[in-house]
Amino acid sequence: MQESVPPSAHTGHHGSFGRILSWCFALLLGVAAGMAIDDWILPEPSTQQDYAPQVAMQQLQQQLLQEQQVADTLRGQLQVEQGAIKGLEDELQKMQQEKSRLGEQLAFYETLLPPGPQGTISIRAFDVEMVGPLLRYKVLLQRSMVNGKPFDGAIYFTAEGQQDGKPATITLEEATAELPEGQEPESTHGVPTAGKTQFPLSFEQFNRDQGWLVVPDGFEIRSLTMSVLEGKTVRASRKVELNTTEATSGS
User: Fold this and answer.
1) CA 223 from chain center: how many Å?
2) Pairing state of beta strands 134-143 and 206-214?
3) What is the DSSP letter of 246?
4) Handedness of CA 22, 23, 25, 26 (dihedral sign)
5) Which of 78, 56, 213, 236 is nearest to 154 (CA)?
6) Which 8-state DSSP code applies to residue 92?
7) pLDDT tens per residue, the chain (251 residues)?
8) Cα 26 from chain centroid?
């Protein structure tokens, strides 16, 4: 005798299985929909990974180019500075050679000079030339070596001759006419005006000087004496005899 299954039991079993299938199907639809949304919203990972290295590479290339430009600028400045240093070194070497040459000449000339006490003033050369109403003089002074302050004094000139037929001694004055550039007194018209009678003098060991003196009208000059003053003391003097055209040096 078989037992029969109630119809309600079959119906409940099939209903539960159907609901499970429905949930599974709904779950699959949700997963598929989510994946579709991700693909639509987010870019592909491979695209981001390829783009980032390119940007970094471009930035590095630009930075390298800027640094190269800075390096080129600094290299150019260095070359200019090296050239300037080389020029200064050459100029310094020339100056040292000139200093050595002058030192040798000075030592040679000092051996030719007679010995004397320190500070002695000597007139090494005194040349005078008569040019119309003017005298042109050139003088070289030497002072024996002194370790101290320079010599400060003055020079002046006295002339001996005749005036109005009588012997006379006068102090000559500096010719002070303003002359055009490159023009000497003898090329001007008229007699230059007279100025100071003493000429300031300051030097350490050697001094070269030249200038013009006015001979007064009616004065017939025979000789010219130059004197070196320190205060009111005459430290050195030199006299030259003159004729109407030129002067010759004498002691």
Assistant:
1) 50
2) antiparallel
3) -
4) positive
5) 236
6) H
7) 444 445 544 445 555 666 666 666 666 666 555 555 555 454 555 555 566 778 888 888 888 888 888 988 898 888 888 888 988 888 888 888 888 887 777 666 666 655 556 678 889 889 999 888 899 999 999 887 666 688 899 999 999 999 988 999 999 998 875 544 555 554 444 444 555 788 899 988 889 999 999 998 889 999 999 999 998 899 999 999 987 544 433 33
8) 93
Q: What does the alpha-carbon distance between residue 150 and residue 233 come to, in Å, rounded to a whole number? A: 17
Q: In degrees, to the nearest 5, what angle opens at C-alpha 84 toward C-alphas 81 and 89? A: 125
Dist. CA 226–CA 249, nearest whole Å: 12
* Tokens found for residue 43: 């870019």
At 16, give phi and psi (nearest 5°): -65, -40
Strands 151-163 and 206-214, by their bridges, are unpaired
222: closest CA among 204, 247, 243?
243
Tokens matching residue 91: 């100029």
Q: Is the pTM of this model over 0.70?
A: no
| Residue 221 near residue 158, CB atoms below 8 Å | no
Three-state DSSP class for residue 251: coil
Backbone phi and psi for residue 52, each to the nearest 5 degrees, phi listed first: -60, -45
